[in-house]
Design brief:
The protein has 13 helices and twelve strands. By secondary structure, the protein is α+β, with helices and mostly antiparallel strands. It folds into three domains: about 5-150, START domain (Alpha-D-Glucose-1,6-Bisphosphate, Chain A, domain 4); about 155-225, Glutaredoxin (3-Layer(aba) Sandwich), CATH 3.40.30; about 235-375, Glutathione S-transferase Yfyf (Class Pi), Chain A, domain 2, CATH 1.20.1050. The chain is elongated and about 75 Å long. It binds glutathione (GSH).
Length: about 375
């Protein structure tokens, strides 16, 4: 829970699944601080810490572009393992005293872990306070990553059904990045989906207290927040625009024709006698063919939609095309498009794809499509 008073102070609390001694050490030990003490998307540069009353500390945080943000201060109170107070001043021009704020951290035992309460006072205005609120939220996420036995899965929770292609795209992206996460299996419009997505759709994602919805935004966050393989092409503006173009093709035309008008007709039959609605499926087939023809030309001799490495477009294409291949019409539709089949096979062999599909067998993804529900649901 977080509260912000109008006096330009910040108070934040965070539960951490680790003993108080460990949390205290993480807050004060140089090597530990180097592992987590910056917001997501940055890395810690140099750290020094002399955690005694009157001792100094200094931390630098480095953006991906190499911009260095330095901060330091003096320990005011060091009561291991329950209380810590220190001044905080970002590097800058002019009067250092005017830039100096005070941080007080109280650690209490709670539910087998630690409740961290932080009070950060002395901000000059609400905007600076709010910037720090955002920054600390992300920094505490990294503290939890560092201390929680589940690592990043102590923060990162994907809310969505394993069968959803959008959810699968997010899971593939997290696996490509090497980010451990927990899956909360939730169907669209269930209370857990409505709680995080204003339109009740899936997927959505928590990173600690941060909430994200809409796949494209989630993928962007994953890419920028976590180290590891880039999810977007890094080699120039044209490639990045192409990645957006292909993602948009799949989102706007691919999902509609393949999933809404074909796959969902099998999974949630809406025709007479609980059968799939033939008219809807038949009308979708030329549009699916058009999507496949477009993708086939886009791949050409390459295995990926943009350049020689997978990007967000491939992570979304793979679950869509894989599911299409399991539909009764899928093999015949795909037969014409060797480039699509080759690219799909390459993606299907990736560990990220395999892990995102491990819990799908027999749930509408098997060769013989089993309806999930006999009702109209398109
Ligand atoms: N614009 C959303 C679309 C997500 C979406 O449509 N997900 C499907 C499941 S794959 C869903 O929630 N469908 C429920 C509905 O259409 O009401 C995104 O990009 O995340």
């Amino acid at each position: 829970m977080t509260t912000q008073a109008a006096t330009f102070e910040l108070e934040m609390t965070r539960f951490i699944r680790a003993p108080r001694e460990k949390v205290f050490e993480a807050l004060t030990d140089e090597a530990a601080m180097a592992a987590w003490h910056c917001p997501r998307g940055l890395r810690v540069g140099d750290v020094s810490s002399d955690a005694r009353v009157g001792g100094r500390y200094r931390i630098t945080m480095v953006t991906r572009d190499g911009v260095v943000h330095g901060s330091g201060g003096v320990y005011q109170a060091v009561d291991r393992p329950s209380f810590l107070a220190y001044t905080w001043a970002w590097d800058g021009e002019g009067d250092a005293a005017a830039r100096t704020t005070l941080i007080e951290v109280t650690l209490s035992e709670k539910d087998g872990g630690t409740q961290l309460h932080m009070r950060h006072t002395g901000f000059p205005d609400a905007a600076v306070r709010d910037d720090h609120h955002q920054g600390w939220t992300s920094v505490f996420n990294r503290l939890v990553d560092y201390l929680d036995p589940a690592g990043t899965a102590g923060n990162v929770v994907v809310v969505g059904s394993p069968i959803s292609p959008y959810t699968r795209a997010v899971r593939i992206a997290l696996a490509e990045k090497g980010v451990a996460y927990a899956l909360k299996p939730v169907a669209p419009h269930k209370p857990e989906a409505d709680a995080i997505h204003p339109f009740g759709r899936i997927p959505a994602m928590y990173d600690g207290p941060l909430e994200f919805y809409e796949t494209r935004a989630i993928l962007r966050y994953i890419d920028e927040a976590f180290e590891g393989t880039a999810l977007f092409p890094t080699s120039g503006v044209t490639s990045r625009a192409r990645a957006e173009q292909w993602y948009s093709v799949l989102n706007d035309y691919g999902y509609d024709a393949i999933v809404k008008r074909c796959v969902l007709q099998y999974l949630f039959p809406s025709g007479a006698d609980g059968q799939p609605n033939r008219a809807i499926i038949d009308a979708a087939l030329p549009d699916i063919d058009r999507v496949l023809a477009t993708l086939d030309a886009g791949y050409g001799p390459r295995d990926y939609l943009v350049g020689n490495a997978p990007c967000i477009a491939d992570y979304f294409a793979a679950p869509l095309l894989h599911t299409l291949s399991k539909m009764p019409e899928g093999p015949a539709l795909l037969a014409k498009y060797a480039n699509v089949r080759r690219a799909l096979a390459v993606m299907e062999a990736r560990p990220s794809f395999i892990s995102a599909h491990a819990d799908l067998e027999g749930k509408g993804d098997a060769p013989n499509v089993t309806p999930l529900r006999k009702a109209s649901a398109a």
